[in-house]
Write a structure and sequence with these properties.
The structure is a single chain. The chain has helices spanning about 15-25, 50-60, and strands at about 1-10, 40-45, 65-75. The protein has one domain: Alpha-Beta Plaits. The protein is an alpha+beta fold. It contains 2 helices and 3 strands. It is about 25% helix and about 30% strand. The chain has a 3-stranded antiparallel sheet, covered by helices on one side.
Length: about 80
């Protein structure tokens, strides 16, 4: 399932470090930074429970480059008619 996350980075995070974090989580469709320094990204996760999702976002927030992570939306797979 695809999750849309809003990730806010520390103000001193270099573009290289930010890009490394985004690449490490497999982020795609990355939006530009907002005034607060947050990015909207889409990640594909196999989490099956809210507890797992909470652990995932908590792990991201524990990174020194990241201030906060919030789940903005879910994108359900679309059924393709054949």
């Amino acid at each position: 399932m695809d999750y849309v996350l809003s990730i806010q980075f520390e103000s001193g995070t270099t573009p290289t470090d930010r890009d490394r974090v985004l690449q490490d989580i497999g982020a795609r469709d990355v939006s530009g930074a907002s005034e607060e320094g947050s990015y909207r990204v889409i990640v594909q996760l196999s989490t099956t429970s809210l507890e797992e999702l909470d652990r995932y976002t908590g792990d991201l927030e524990s990174l020194p480059e990241v201030i906060s992570v919030s789940v903005v939306a879910l994108q359900l797979p679309m059924k393709v008619e054949q």
